[in-house]
Amino acid sequence: MAREHDTELYRYPQQLRDTLAHLPSTPGVYFFWASNSHVPLYIGKSVNIRSRVLSHLRTVREAKLLRQTDRITYTETAGDIGAQLLEATLIKQLIPLHNKQLRKQRSLFTLQWNEPRIAFVSSTEHNFARTPNLYGLFRNKRSAMEFIQNLADEHQLCLATLGVETAQRGRGCFRSMLGKCRGVCQGKETLEQHSRRVIQALSAWQIKMWPYKGRVAIHEQREGFNDYHIIDHWRYINTVDTLTVVPQTQHENSFDGDSYRILCRALFSGVEVIPLDE
What is the pTM of this model? Predict the structure, then answer.
């Protein structure tokens, strides 16, 4: 329950009341600005801009942001996919003070299955959209290591057989003595059995390879808006209102985990997808 002085801090400036009257109940991205600032304090997205902004104003923990905000602007989109893509792109470009998520990362890590071993792979070395047998997206190698260790504990996998820990010649791994490994390192199960269990344990985290020959357009439209989101190997390129002239893209060895998550959901949700490079 909010304390009395918290509620006092929560009251937003009068000029924001005037801004609210002009906010649309449509999909898009909104921006909180400080006076005389060229970079927004915060960028958000919603299928209903007005409703989402009002929710900020009803939240006591947003008091600091609201005290700093001088005005609120917005950019409408044809739909939710466009709003998500625009938000993620602008946050990486502008780095607003109050946005902690979706900021650009220099590299990501994943796990590559090279039976019977696991390798730690960086996005600076491989393009994840074109590399098979990848599982999980991690901010650093340590997070990837913690993930596979926890997965091994949950499914009694052998970290020595996976190449994550050093194997002891003629002896089972240390975890087998603790009952945390089912014993492939001692011959209690075959490599084939162990590999099947590894794949089953990893399956929910598999990274999907790009399923098209090249670029595609995701089509979103509503009254007054007709957007084509140009995508190339899970990379968001830009949004255009016609496919008469579609910009070419360079093949970069880059992978954006945020775009991947947004687009992976979108492509398999029944939206209209138009291949551009058949």
Answer: 0.85
